Structures are given as C-alpha cells and as structure tokens.
C-alpha cells in the first residue's frame, strides 16, 4: 500500500496539494508519514467519535478537523444522504483516491463521482482478521471475500 501511495503522490506537487485522510493512523492513515516525508501538508477530517480514541490520531497530521457526527462516515441510516463527516470529506476533495476500502469509502467515492470529482481506485484486500472480527461482533457470517465493498463498484471493469 505504501509503495502504491508513493506512486500516486508522485503525480502531485507537495506545494500545491493538501493530503486529506480520516486523521487516524490505522489503515490508509499509514500514508500520512509517507506524505509528510515527501513534503506534503496533511489534514484529517474525522468524526467527533474519534475524540473517544485520541491515541489513534496520527502524529503526522498537520491539521485535524473534527466534524460533529454520531457515526464515522458513510450514509446516514435509512438514507441516501452522506453523514456530516463523509459530506465534509467529499466536499473538501478535488480528487478522491482509494486503496481498497469498504462501505464508508464506497459511499464517499460514489458521492464524489456524482459531483464530478475524479476517482482513482486501486484494489487491495481488507485486513482479514479485522473483517472477520467485525463480522463476529455484528453477528454476521464470516466474509467470503476480502476485496471490500469499494471493489464491488469500482474494481470491476466495464
């Protein structure tokens, strides 16, 4: 993932580009230190839910914007509307890049595409142990695929 991220970042000027991820250091947040090492300014857009996990905020984020939101992102329950966090992420982005990803990323990419934002998607499997654990705690069957829900939409060649 980090090698791929370096390749994507090499397409942009650090002087003219702000790298925005979700502020936490897990998953794709591991790209923050890479972006910083190349000279990019970094920002995080994250739900106020993250205030319950301050140790998870990446130390490589220059600016963090906490969005008042009772969920981490994605669509609001029983709605096609994005949560405040995802709405802020999409609205503030000129280009959306995803490396793998699941439901929140899928919802943000679909909204970005509908707004005419360029989308770049790179397939990557979701962490197997994390996805299995998530299924267990939600009382769901073990996943049959680890490609992630973004792949279901953006990974298929049309």
What would you say this structure looks like, in words?
The protein is α/β, with parallel strands linked by helices and 158 residues long. It has a single domain, classed as Rossmann fold (3-Layer(aba) Sandwich). Helix content is 33%, strand content 15%. It contains six helices and five strands; from the N terminus they run αβαββαβαβαα. The protein has a three-stranded parallel beta sheet. Strands 4-5 form a two-stranded parallel ribbon. Strand 1, helix 2 and strand 2 form a beta-alpha-beta unit. Helix 3 (84-91) packs across helix 4 (103-114).
Task: Please give a handful of descriptors for the protein shown.
Rossmann fold, about 160 residues, alpha/beta, globular, three-stranded parallel beta sheet
Helical segment tally? 6
Question: What's the count of strands?
Answer: 5
Helix coverage percent: 25-40%
Fraction of residues in β-strands: 15-25%
Kindly report how far apart the N and C termini lie: 24 Å
Question: How would you summarize what this structure contains?
Answer:
The protein is α/β, with parallel strands linked by helices and 158 residues long. The chain contains six helices and five strands, in the order αβαββαβαβαα. It has one domain (2-124): 3-Layer(aba) Sandwich (Rossmann fold), CATH 3.40.50.
Write the layout of secondary structure elements.
Layout: H1 2-9, E1 18-21, H2 31-38, E2 41-47, E3 63-67, H3 84-91, E4 96-99, H4 103-114, E5 119-122, H5 128-137, H6 149-154
Parallel strand pairs: 1-2, 2-3, 4-5
């Amino acid at each position: 993932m980090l090698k791929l991220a370096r390749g994507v970042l090499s397409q942009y000027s650090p002087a003219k580009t702000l790298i925005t991820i979700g502020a936490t250091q897990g998953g794709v947040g591991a790209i923050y230190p890479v972006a910083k090492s190349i000279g990019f300014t970094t920002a995080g857009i994250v739900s106020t839910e993250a205030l319950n996990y301050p140790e998870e905020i990446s130390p490589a984020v220059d600016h963090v914007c906490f969005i008042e939101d009772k969920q981490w992102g994605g669509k609001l329950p029983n709605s096609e509307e994005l949560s405040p966090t995802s709405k802020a992420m999409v609205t503030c982005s000129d280009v959306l890049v995803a490396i793998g990803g699941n439901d929140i990323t899928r919802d943000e990419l679909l909204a970005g595409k509908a707004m005419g934002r360029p989308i770049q998607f790179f397939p990557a499997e979701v962490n197997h142990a994390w996805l299995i654990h998530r299924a267990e705690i939600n009382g769901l069957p073990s996943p049959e695929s680890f490609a992630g829900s973004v792949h279901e939409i953006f990974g298929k060649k049309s």
